[in-house]
Design brief:
- The chain is mostly helical.
- It is about 80% helix and about 0% strand.
- The chain has eleven helices and no strands.
- The radius of gyration is 20 Å and the shape is globular.
Length: about 270
């Protein structure tokens, strides 16, 4: 067997091992169930209640809801689901340090960068598949519930990109959180850091004055990434939807590079 073939076989084994660890952990199952319940279940309930109350809304409120249908069926579910994804991403790495399983993993495969690469690839594929399935399921379910009052189709401007982009955003966010888990290696600390950035720091930057403050706010990781599932943007935006996702991906790549360096240099 050549060295290249051996490496490929070793990496294939790592991928299978990481997939087994990920899918057999209860937190993964419950996290995915929670994402489905939020993205489809909770969204459906909210949309149904809004449609039940539709005759009671003023014409102005009806027009506002009709102008932004994805606010109900994509924006709000993603905002809540991202918290679940962030926690799950952190635990992909940090849970092994908490249990001590990381030592067994590195004993069986001393090439640490291969180990981290396998974790990243397996988790990215899982998040992409789950994120896209739930995004499109939420869209079609919400569209069906609201069809009598708010017609919306994938052919409408920006809708297909927004629905597909929601899954992309959750995928990149998962990798962003995974990088935090690999850098900090402590579950509670990493979760606090990621959620603090998403919910607190990113929002506080909106208070910074002047054009430099606006640029800092726009270029914050999740602020930029969330643009990808917005059908429209305000006039003269600092970033377009795809530029925002690219900025978020750049931040994620940077944190993953730091995580890879520390993963290789530090003791388990």
């Amino acid at each position: 067997m050549t060295t290249l073939t051996a490496r490929r076989a070793g990496f294939d084994g790592l991928l299978r091992s990481e997939w087994t660890k990920l899918r057999t952990v209860r937190s993964t199952t419950w996290s995915l169930v929670a994402m489905a319940a939020i993205s489809v279940g909770l969204m459906s309930l909210i949309a149904w209640l809004l449609m039940r109350q539709w005759p009671q809304f003023s014409p102005q409120d009806q027009a506002a809801l009709a102008a932004e249908p994805l606010q109900i069926i994509i924006d709000q579910p993603v905002f809540i689901s991202q918290l679940v994804v962030a926690v799950l991403g952190v635990m992909v790495v940090s849970a092994e340090y908490t249990t001590g399983m990381i030592r067994s993993t590195l004993q069986s495969q001393p090439r640490r960068l291969l180990v981290l690469s396998a974790k990243v690839l397996v988790f990215a594929l899982l998040m992409f598949a789950v994120g896209e399935v739930l995004s499109f399921a939420a869209f079609f379910t919400g569209r069906w519930i609201m069809s009598d009052h708010i017609p919306v189709t994938l052919s409408d401007p920006g809708i297909t990109r927004s629905v597909f982009g929601a899954g992309l955003y959750l995928t990149v966010l998962g990798l962003f959180a995974l990088a935090f888990g690999a850098i900090i290696r402590h579950t509670a600390g990493a979760i606090t850091g990621v959620l603090g950035l998403i919910l607190v720091v990113s929002n506080l930057t909106a208070l910074l004055p002047g054009t430099w403050g606006a640029h800092i706010h726009a270029w914050m990781p999740t602020n930029a990434g969330q643009l990808i599932y917005k059908p429209t943007l305000p006039p003269d935006p600092l970033l377009t939807q795809w530029q925002g996702l690219a900025v978020f991906a750049g931040w994620t790549a940077l944190f993953l590079a730091v995580a890879a360096y520390l993963f290789k240099k530090r003791d388990a």
